[in-house]
Amino acid sequence: MLNQEVYDKVVAAFAAKFGGKPAKVAYAPGRIEVLGNHTDYNEGYVFSAAIDKGTFFAASPADDGKITLVALNMDETYEVELSAVAPVKSGMTWASYVLGTFNWLFDGNPAAAGKGFKAVFGGNIPLGAGLSSSASLDVATALALGAVYGIEKDKTALAKLCQKAENTWAGCPCGLLDQASSIYGKAGALVKSDFRYCKFENVSMGEGIAFMMVKSNAKHALVDGAYASRRQACEDAAKYFAGVLKKGGVTHLRDVTMAEWVLYRGGLSETTAKRAVHPIGEDERVIQGAALLEKGDLKGFGALMYDSHESSRNWFENSCEELDAIVDAAKAIPEVYGARLSGGGFGGSCCLLVDPAAADKIAAQITKEYKAKFGDEPVCSVIQPSDGAHLV
To answer: 10 Å Cβ neighbour count for 141?
Structure first.
């Protein structure tokens, strides 16, 4: 089993805390974003992958109306009566992810569960690396508790439920990418997401390839305001194109081609035009990338990742000096086929497409150059695209 050691620790902790084995155990992986950046709210396309690290959630029904949660990694325990389930605003805020998911499993009426539950969860996703540890927890919770209470939902419904928990209970305005990637992941394959129709499919990566996540130490400065301004610029641009394009049916930047942007960009402010071209180009890169993967052209796919980062650097301006330095260092290493920032940007991590046999060499070279420039070291982790969430 993948991550057997983590599973063993979670099950042992459950037995130590509650006595006996858990009734159900679920596993959900984290995710990496590989291509397609800031396209989800533009109803576009994304390539992502479930990773080989994740969260195990072990649970059993309680004999009363009490909920007991043990966060193994943080060595914390949270208890609440079923009748008092609510978002946790301070202290052990991690409980909001679990309780919010539980709440929406029962359509906003957790008391309908009748009885509480006891649970232990733990995982091995590096925090702060942009690998979606929170979505991993949501999905593992939903799968385990759904099994405990006999609630069945299809994969997309489950992803939306977990997204709703993060949006409404944890206060995180995430899209659907993280949860869908965790659920629809497949070993050796990417998840191609279409956010207009909420369709998800797997595209094989082939043999002898891996990703490397390189976590910078860049501080996330003004992320909320920067994110909001870029999203607003995309919405403004979509409205403009809806008015000038003759084809009709334009509601989001997904409906605009690069050729149309070139022809009509003059009617936009310089900043709005720059912001708009990024998701337009990203959608086209994901579509091109799918065709290249069908041919087994990994270097061609990697070139699109480099193009994606240049678009982030020059047009969307959601990169930063540290992320640019990582990508620039990667370009000089033959065993790195592509590299780009991963996730929202403004800090965080870069995702590299690499030959896993050269992982140590790649990590050493990037670390050397990063340290020479910034005085500290990034964290490099090799990641294999892996199977999605499931009951153990």
So the answer is: 27
| C-alpha radius of gyration, the chain, whole number | 22
The predicted structure's pLDDT at residue 344: 82
**Residue of 344, 352, 347 lying closest to 323 (CA atoms):** 347
pLDDT attached to residue 180: 95
Q: Return the exposure string of 206-217: e unless at least 16 CB atoms fall within 10 Å of the residue's CB, then b.
A: eeebbbbbbbbe
- In the chain, domain spans: 4-204
Angle at 59 between CA 123 and CA 140, to 5 degrees: 45
Nearest in space to 219 (alpha carbons), one of 376, 31, 40 = 376
Rounded CA separation 139/181 (Å) = 10
Number of Cβ within a 10 Å radius of residue 280: 26
Q: What is the dihedral of CA 160, 166, 171, 173, to 10 degrees?
A: -50
Residues 194 and 200: beta-carbon distance below 8 Å: yes
Pick from 38, 350, 95: nearest CA to 223: 38
The pLDDT tens digits of the residues spanning 141-177 come to 999 999 999 999 999 999 999 999 999 999 887 789 9
Residues annotated as part of the active site: 178
pTM score over 0.85 = yes
CA–CA distance, 336 with 210 (Å, rounded to integer): 10
Residue recorded with tokens 């709703």:
164
Mean pLDDT for the chain overall? 94
Residues 6+ apart with CB under 8 A from 93: 170
Q: Helices 270-294 and 298-311 meet at what angle, rounded to 10?
A: 170
**Domain 4-204 annotated CATH 3.30.230.10:** yes
Of the chain, the percentage scoring pLDDT greater than 70 comes to 98
Res 25: pLDDT? 98
Please say whether the beta carbons of 62 and 47 come within 8 A.
no
Decide if 46 contacts 195 (C-beta within 8 A).
yes
Scan for tokens 């359509």, then name that residue.
Answer: 107
